[in-house]
Amino acid sequence: FFFSMRALCRAAALARRGMASSRAAAVSIDLRSDTVTQPTPGMRAAMQETPLGVGDDVYGEDPTVAALEGRVAQLLQKEAGLFVPSGTMGNLISVGVQCARGEDVVCGHLSHLYNWEAGGPSVLLGVPLRTVQNAADGTLPLDEVRRTVLRGDDVHCSRTGLVAMENTHNLCGGRAVSADHTQALARLCRELGVQLHLDGARLLNAAAALQVAPHALTGPADTVSLCLSKGLGAPVGSVVAGTAAFVHRARRLRKVLGGGLRQAGVLAAAGLYALDYHWPGVIRRDHEHARLLATELARLPWVDLDPASVHTNMVYLRVKPPLFPAAVIPALLKGLAQRGVRAGSETGSDVRFVTHLHIQRSDVETVVQYVDDVFREWQESL
Known about the structure:
single chain, alpha/beta, three-stranded antiparallel β-sheet, 12 strands, about 15% strand, disordered N terminus
């Protein structure tokens, strides 16, 4: 009787799996990152209408690129901006301009700069990264920063040239870091005689979540990088901003790194369109969808997720004990992929969902149903 019941359960699970697979055949919901977006029809039109052949940005002559750089500098209340191909290059340039070879950068142990940028400052610039423990909210504990920054004359030690913070903070759940913390960290950096760089890849998500102007979060920092190809939905590019002297030196380092672009106005046009039409409305909608996703997932009895922890467009799903993430998470990712839903896992102990401009409320409802279906099938297969 036991074996016949088990066989019936397996048959039922297989039948549900077949029905789910047929339902999901046409489903394509990509929640791995907000970098997966495609230009909207309006953005494509703006790119297509951009005059070509009117300037070479390596010479600083492309008017659309200049307009984008000026727009971002004004938004962040910095003297000047520089368009670069990626956020990683923007951070690398910011480090290279503000640190001499052999100086170091102090950053969070969970920072994107430290974990996901291939060790670029060390590899290419001779600038090692040293870490302090991020707090759960993504901030850098000031006492730890004070103890870690090195400015003495001990020949055994490197000297710190830069402190780098991140807002929003990816590996801390997409948390928005407050203006108060940025101001306090900037005061400490001035006291210690080092510069402060803000990795603001998703800075506008932070501004929307905190309901403040972007410059309230960037004003205290010496340099800022802002990504155009994440929540803003442009296909490529970032802008680094700071003083005019910083941007002058950054332009040279961009060239050294192979980041000089020629007729780049067609790319800059996408960034301008995003600032005109995706900020702040689309980003706020992304946050609403993330909160809805978190709220509905949290209703599942096996899910360990506090909806209040979702500040922006990232949702991290974990499983409750006694379940083992190493068993559940791969099965969950595989089952979702079979249904046309793509998600990611930063650490192997969770599933990361990132909402973006292509995600609708109906997509959120579909994902929640599929997560529940996949888990039930996994249980029945044991």
